[in-house]
Design goal:
This protein is mostly helical. The protein has 2 domains: 1-44, no CATH class; 49-162, no CATH class. Helices cover 63% and strands 2% of the residues. The chain has 5 helices and 2 strands, in the order ββααααα. The protein has a two-stranded antiparallel ribbon. Helix 2 packs antiparallel against helix 3, helix 3 (82-106) runs antiparallel to helix 4 (114-138) and helix 4 packs antiparallel against helix 5 (146-162).
Length: 163
Amino acid sequence: MARVTPPLPGPEWSARPSVAASGSQSEPPRWAGAVYKRRLAAGGWPVGGAMAGGVFTRVAGLSGALAVGLGAYGAHGFRRSDRDDYLKELFETANKYHFLHSLALLGVPLCRKPLLAGSLLTSGMVMFCGAFYYQAVTGDPVFTKAAPFGGTILIVGWAAMAL
């Protein structure tokens, strides 16, 4: 027997008939929380939204583990000299931004456009941090011109999280 749920507050909420034992995917189960019901009332989950969020949570974990490993290398892998002081500082800058944006990726599933925000943050991290890591390890500044573009992409990624 179908029952009608009472209207919920807010313009995006709507009263929908729900059948507790139907097993239908279009109807919320009896135990569903307000967030789940709200998403269904608003037209369902965004295409790829829930899946993209899970992917970027995994990317954040892998990126964080890589940042810890590279931080350990940076702390113990540089020799003392004037040139190496600059390269070590460059490496530490890359590592700091790598850590920060790995943590930012954990917030991607909570934003409205997780695929956009996560892609921008990930690609910006690769371009910005990768260019600095490469120069710090090899001494070759060939990819340094990619760093400003990577930084700009990181800024746009943060803005995409706010959308």
